Amino acid sequence: MLKTEAERHFSRELLNWYRANKRTLPWRANRDPYRVWVSEIMLQQTRVDTVIPYYERFMDRFPTIKALAGAPEEDVLKCWEGLGYYSRARNLQAGARMVMELYGGTVPDDKTAVAGLKGVGPYTSGAIMSIAFNRPEPAVDGNVMRVLSRYFCLEDDIAKPATRVRIEKLAASLIPEGAAGDFNQGLMELGALVCTPKSPSCLPCPVMEHCAGRMAGREQELPIKTKAKPPRPELRVAAIVAGTGANTGKVLVRQRPEKGLLAQMWELPHVLLTKEQEPMLAAGESGAKEQEAMGELLTKAVEADAGLLIRPRRWFMDAEHVFSHIHWTMRFYLADLGAAGEEAKAGVKSDIAAESAAAYETLPPGASAVRSPYRWIGPEDMETLAFPNLFLRILREYWDSIEEGEE
Ligand code: SF4
Q: Which of 8, 149, 271, 282 has its CA 20 to 30 A from that of 388?
C-alpha cells in the first residue's frame, strides 16, 4: 500500500531518533524473549524508574523460565511485593509453566503461541514478537495510542476497543522493514519521554514536522478518551492484634484465598463494612461510640474466623489503597487478646464467647492458638511473606512504634 509523506517521515525519523537516543535499560541488554516478557509485564501501569530495581532483583532470583516455573508462588509474590497488580506476577509464572510444558522451556517464535500464554495480551505479545524476534507486529498501549492520535490528529475515543484495533492496524503499517523491535520501542520511548500525556515537548520532537495534531494546535487535547468509572469505595476496619506469651512482639495475620483480589498474599484481619455500617466511620464520628461498634465487629469476625477472642483497645491509624476498580479506606485498631477460652468455659455471658465455645474445645490449649490461614508473625517474617503495600506500611509503623516504646 502506498504511504503518505507523513507516514514515511514518521517511520524514518522515529527509528533514527530511537537508535541515537535510546536509554540504557537493564532489559535492553539483549533480546532474550524471557527478559523482554518479564520487563513488559512489570512495566504495565508502572514507571520505568520503579521497575528497574524490581526487574534486576527478579532476574537475579529467577534468571530462567525454568527457575520461575519451578519456584513456589510465595517466592514470586515476595519478589513482586510493592509493585502492585499482583495477578501480573501469578500470570507470569503460570505463563512460564506453560512454556515449560508446551514448548520445552523456550518461548516460541510464533505469534499465536505467544498470545496464548497466560497473562499475555495483544500489547505484550506484540512487544515480545517484535523486540525479541523482530517480527512486524504492532505493540499498542496507551502511550502509543496517544502518540499516533496526536501525530495523525485522530478524533476516535481511545477508550473504545474498535479504536485500539484501528490504531493497531495503523501502527503495523508504519513498521519499517526489518526494524520492528527498534521501531516499536521508539514509539514507546517517544510516548514516555517526548509526547507525554500532559505536556508534549513538540519542539525537540523528531516527528514534529509532519505532526497533524501539533499543526492543528490540538496536541494538548488529544487523544480523546472518555473517563473510566471511578473505583468503587469500600470502608474496612482492621485489627492489629498483639500476641502474648511465646508470641509477645508478634501480630496476627492471615493469608488471602487462592483466587481473587490479592490472592494468597498476607494481610491483617479486617472486615468490610455494610452500607448501613459505613456512616459509623464517617468523619466526626470517631468517638467512643464508633470505637465500641467497630471493636465489636472486629471481635466477632476474628472470633469466628481465627478462633480468638480479641479486645480492640484504641484507634491506630487510617490508610487508603486504590486498586483499578476498588478504593479501600481502612481504619486500624490496636487490639489485645482476651482470655477467651477461659471466659467461654466459665460461662461468661458473652454472645461471642458462647457462640464459639465449642470451637475452642477443638483448639490446642492457650489463647494464642489460631486456625489456618491465620498465624503470628514478627518483623523477621516480613522477609519471607508477601504483603500488599497497604499492610506493609501499617506493620512497619506498628513495629516502629513498639521500638520507640509507644505501644
Ligand atoms: S510534535 Fe508534539 S504532539 Fe506531535 S508527536 Fe511530537 S510531541 Fe507529540
A: 282
